[in-house]
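Continuing the batch. This is chain 6 of the set; chains 1 through 5 are on the previous pages. Same settings as before, nothing changed between runs. Recording input and output for traceability.
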Amino acid sequence: MGNQLELLEREALKLSAGERAAFARVLLSSLDEDNEIDEVWADEMERRIAQVEAGGLACIPVETAISELRASLQ
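Output for chain 6:
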């Protein structure tokens, strides 16, 4: 079974980020009977990944985001 898992992992890592997210969604939903919330988050994750890949979403380092948030709260 280890060989099958290694093969699956190698093949999955060849997928685009969006495809990996969709695949992860399928795998996670197979583990959880109450997966409605997981599906909503998976959809949101796929949407955000697509935005980043298309260049339509500005990304900033988490340290910058936290600093800006703290500054806004003072």
